[in-house]
């Protein structure tokens, strides 16, 4: 499978498993898991075709590790980034002292005044390194990397979660914890 086909399937999976499963009439359980056979059948009915081997390749080679299978590969889900109500069953964890948030330069005045909101997502996403945050920020315009004092947030009672694909999650970041 070439990179263009992989990207097409990955974008489709992001839409279906993170935002709009109803697009193909797919049911996700409370933890965001979908039956792989149902996903493949309902995708094909909607003229999106892929084999189980291709699906496996997309999951295994996705550079952001957006998706995961259960142990016997009968179920699949997105690791984070949902706009729909799912419980990923993540346990609160202590974050490192500092994490990073990549955004576009145009967003900086609002962020420095109002903080970082999750908006339509379930959480605010933070990166453990500046390179990843830069890549995130570039998707939205000229990137700016913000340093977040997550150790101080944690000491102040704010909860953090660590997703299976290495993204730190929290509900809101007050501007007082943000450095440009």
TrEMBL record:
This is Probable RNA 2'-phosphotransferase. It comes from Chryseobacterium defluvii. Keywords: NAD, Transferase. GO terms for biological process: tRNA splicing, via endonucleolytic cleavage and ligation. GO terms for molecular function: NAD+ poly-ADP-ribosyltransferase activity; tRNA 2'-phosphotransferase activity. It holds the Pfam family PTS_2-RNA. Belongs to the KptA/TPT1 family. Removes the 2'-phosphate from RNA via an intermediate in which the phosphate is ADP-ribosylated by NAD followed by a presumed transesterification to release the RNA and generate ADP-ribose 1''-2''-cyclic phosphate (APPR>P). May function as an ADP-ribosylase. Its EC number is 2.7.1.-. InterPro entries: Ptrans_KptA/Tpt1, RNA_2'-PTrans_C, RNA_2'-PTrans_KptA, RNA_2'-PTrans_N. Signal peptide: none annotated. The lineage of its organism: Bacteria, Pseudomonadati, Bacteroidota, Flavobacteriia, Flavobacteriales. HAMAP family: KptA.
